[in-house]
Write a structure and sequence with these properties.
single chain, 316 residues, alpha/beta, 12 helices, 7 strands
């Protein structure tokens, strides 16, 4: 399938979210979908699940990983929650493995699992990896489905860094200002990443997300890292064009994947530029793009910049 044509079909980007209760998973999904609302939950048949019934089932330890979570603000994302897996039981682990295996073999792209976000909260740094998490990374082969570890509540490590800085003699003000940077600089040498480097099935990447409960919280790092782990251009475009919180990454991928294909092969005609602009626009499906004279001029400027042409280009 041509990547530029995927939006002509009903295709949604599907993500399995793994992690303990209270790891901040829902908050992150809300940030990704740019909303404060709770998601709608539907079963595998597409029927909406009553939240009261769902809550009662969870209290009894029942959970269906096939249930789909969708936010009205961005229905292009479908999330599955492995709730209950943190208990570490063998039956829960088997369900997760079977779900990943089955979804990876789905014939329709929209039904496949495209990525896994494994959330680990840093406010419980003394037990960063539970038995369930160790089991997942040592026994669960996800094949071509990338796993991104999301260290949630990373700001909890700011307090640890603050205490260290105070012991080093820093003032209250300086320690408070330097704590975030100290936490970020020392984290790569900490036990969390060292553990992940030694497991049988390591993740494709990781991100650290602090202060996700704040109104100006930025999940751009998660968007960029997820896009960077996808090894298929069609999935790249599906993911990048589905997310609506990072316009910069849309622009980067649109230029990176489109212009090199066309600038040396198409003629400088209006129709040719319509093709280029249309392909560029497919990376921005949530933005209405019109072909204006200024757009043609802008495209010509980009062409001159990228290919190093010094001569003027006739847009006719």
């Amino acid at each position: 399938m041509d990547p530029s044509g995927i939006r002509g079909k009903i295709i949604r980007f599907r993500i399995l979210v793994v992690g303990r209760a209270n790891a901040g998973k829902t908050t992150i999904l809300q940030r990704v979908c740019n909303t404060r609302d709770d998601p709608e939950i539907r079963n595998s048949a597409g029927k909406k699940v009553d939240l009261a019934v769902l809550a009662a089932s969870r209290e009894r330890g029942l959970h269906d990983i096939e249930n789909e979570m969708v936010f009205r603000s961005n229905p292009g994302f479908v999330f599955h929650d492995s709730r209950g897996f943190e208990a570490g039981g063998e039956s829960e682990f088997i369900k997760v493995k079977e779900f990943i295996a089955a979804r990876s073999k789905e014939g329709k792209l929209t039904n496949r699992l495209h990525a896994i976000w494994y959330c680990i909260p840093m406010d419980e740094a003394h037990r960063s990896f539970t038995a369930a998490e160790k089991k997942f990374f040592s026994e669960c082969d996800t094949g071509t489905i990338p796993v991104i570890v999301v260290f949630t509540k990373f700001d909890a490590l700011y307090d640890v860094a603050y205490s260290q800085l105070r012991k080093e003699g820093k003032s209250l003000k300086d320690a408070r200002e330097l704590a975030p940077r100290r936490a970020e600089e020392t984290f790569p040498d900490g036990p969390q990443l060292k553990f992940l480097e030694g497991v049988k099935w390591p993740p494709k990447g990781h991100v650290c997300l602090p202060n996700m409960n704040e109104d100006n919280a930025d999940c751009g790092a998660l968007i960029e890292r997820t896009a960077g782990t996808l090894n298929d251009e069609m999935l790249e475009q599906l993911f990048v064009s589905t997310q609506q919180t990072n316009l910069e990454i849309c622009m980067m991928y649109a230029i990176k994947r489109t212009l090199p294909k066309y600038l040396d092969s198409v003629k400088s005609t209006t129709e040719a530029y319509k093709v280029i602009l249309g392909t560029l626009g497919s990376w921005f499906p949530h933005i209405y793009v019109r072909l204006l004279e200024s757009s043609k001029v802008a495209l010509i400027c980009i062409e001159c910049l990228l290919v190093g042409r010094s001569e003027s280009v006739d847009p006719r």
